[in-house]
């Protein structure tokens, strides 16, 4: 392993982050478990950053990929593709967006980049509203709307970005308010901001902030924002790269917790739909999607092998009600972790929905982030046979828990027990 790590450092960028003091090589997986190069098994509570959505080595997906590879792997969007049309039809119907059109990309970053292109072209404005503590990808444009310093390596941008309050419920100037007052204060802040600028193209927001530590506003905030935006013709883009496909349990899309004023004008997706294959995309109302006045293609977006995987994965997800499983098993897991946290002074908050759970750590007796403890818990969980993630924004450190949506009750209990031991060792 040390040899592979040395080779990695010699040929790959210094800024390419790796977990663990002794980096891990994962060689294979099955169900909710993965194995490393030494043959040790781990319960996977992070799924390749929320990407292995249903299960590792899911037979239905591997069969679809194998059969498609035996026919043709790729031809580009210059030719008709039956699996691309079929998956687009399914996603358009599931999106909740009327007269929907779908454009496939290879990642969430590229999906958000495309949404920004569409919004700024449609609205003829390069001003974008984004949420504080947000993360939207690693391209030049998506870094320009990312409100998280740890993932923003440059302030240069083709966009003028204005950041709005509300993505984090338990921190910031409105944290002391109750939910209704919190929403009202954020709406007033948005109105005030709009009074000082030219009309923006769009607001882009994650219904639950992923990299930011699985934080979210009260239900209905983005519906209240939408009322304000619609009066001014400003679009709403829901970044569903991490929240889509039923992961939150209660809803198929994260925006549905804020659906009182209707669906977003656009939603972006990626990660889980491919179960590890590179699929991203944008769903938009036809008039927005069709606003470009020059040719465009996607060489690898919509390629046959990834579309075959996406179709098989989506079929499995819906037929086995994995959204319902995320609601049931995720609810049990959250309550179990909250019971653990009640006796630990370093756990500030256990939050989340379905199988998208954040455990925020703080130095005991304070609200200050505890990145040392977060790193220690990550290491201890690995030693115990559990893989989790971490994140956080301004002065926060959080553990991120997002297992495949087929997680069983027994596996949830196994993971919770390992995480409890890791937390107790840190505190």
Shape: globular
Number of helices: 13
Largest sheet: 7 strands, mixed
Q: How much of the polypeptide forms β-strand, as a percent range?
A: 15-25%
Order of strands across the main sheet: 4-10-9-8-7-5-6
The average pLDDT score comes to 96
Radius of gyration: 21 Å
Spans of at least 5 consecutive residues whose pLDDT stays below 50 are none
Structural class: alpha/beta
State the end-to-end CA separation.
30 Å
Q: Let me know the number of strands.
A: 15
Instruction: Name the helicity range.
Output: 25-40%
SSE pattern, N- to C-terminal:
HEEEHHHEHEHEHEHEEEHHHEEHEEEH
Give your account of this protein's structure.
- There is one protein chain.
- Strands 4-10-9-8-7-5-6 form a 7-stranded mixed sheet, with helices on both faces. Strands 1-2-3-13 form a 4-stranded mixed sheet.
- The radius of gyration is 21 Å and the shape is globular.
- It has 13 helices and 15 strands.
- It has helices at residues 2-11, 47-50, 59-71, 82-95, 108-123, 140-143, 179-194, 221-231, 286-289, 304-319, 322-341, 371-383, 409-426; strands at 26-30, 33-36, 41-44, 100-105, 127-131, 160-164, 202-205, 235-239, 266-269, 280-285, 347-353, 356-361, 386-387, 389-391, 397-401.
- With 427 residues, the protein is α/β, with parallel strands linked by helices.
- The longest helix is centred in the C-terminal third of the chain and has 20 residues, at 322-341.
- The two termini are 30 Å apart.
């Amino acid at each position: 392993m040390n040899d592979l790590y040395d080779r990695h450092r010699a040929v790959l960028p210094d800024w390419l982050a790796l977990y663990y003091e002794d980096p891990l090589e994962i060689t294979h997986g099955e169900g909710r478990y993965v194995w490393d190069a030494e043959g040790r098994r781990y319960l996977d509570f992070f799924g390749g950053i929320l990407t292995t959505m249903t299960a590792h080595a899911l037979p239905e997906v591997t069969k679809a990929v194998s059969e498609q590879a035996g026919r043709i792997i790729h031809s580009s969007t210059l030719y008709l593709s039956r699996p691309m049309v079929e998956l687009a039809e399914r996603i358009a119907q599931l999106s909740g967006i009327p007269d929907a059109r779908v454009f496939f990309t290879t990642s969430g970053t590229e999906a958000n980049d495309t949404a920004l292109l569409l919004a700024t072209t449609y609205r003829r404005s390069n001003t974008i509203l984004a949420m504080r503590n947000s993360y939207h990808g690693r391209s030049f444009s998506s870094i320009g709307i990312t409100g998280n310093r740890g993932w923003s390596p440059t302030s240069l941008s083709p966009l003028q970005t204005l950041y709005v309050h509300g993505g984090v419920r338990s921190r910031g100037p409105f944290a002391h308010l109750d939910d209704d007052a919190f929403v009202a204060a954020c709406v007033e802040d948005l109105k005030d901001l709009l009074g000082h600028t030219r009309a923006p193209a769009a607001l882009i927001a994650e219904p639950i902030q992923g990299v930011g530590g699985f934080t979210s506003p009260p239900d209905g905030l983005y519906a209240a924002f939408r009322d304000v935006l619609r009066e001014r013709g400003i679009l709403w883009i829901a970044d569903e790269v991490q929240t889509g496909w039923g992961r939150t349990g209660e809803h198929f899309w994260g925006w549905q917790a804020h659906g009182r004023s209707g669906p977003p004008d656009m939603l972006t997706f990626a990660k889980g739909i491919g179960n590890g294959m590179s699929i991203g995309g944008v769903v938009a109302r036809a008039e927005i999607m069709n606003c470009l006045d020059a040719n465009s293609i996607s060489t690898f977006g919509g390629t046959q092998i990834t579309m075959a995987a996406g179709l098989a994965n989506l079929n499995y997800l819906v037929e086995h009600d994995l959204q319902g499983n995320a609601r049931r098993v995720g609810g049990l897991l959250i309550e179990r972790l909250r019971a653990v946290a009640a006796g630990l002074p370093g756990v500030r908050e256990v939050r989340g929905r379905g199988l998208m759970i954040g455990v925020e750590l703080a130095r005991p007796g304070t609200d200050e982030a505890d990145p040392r403890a977060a790193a220690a818990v990550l290491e201890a969980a690995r030693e115990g046979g559990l893989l989790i993630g971490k994140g956080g924004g301004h002065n926060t450190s959080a553990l991120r828990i997002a297992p495949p949506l087929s997680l069983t009750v027994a596996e949830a209990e196994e993971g919770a027990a390992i995480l409890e031991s890791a937390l107790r060792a840190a505190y």
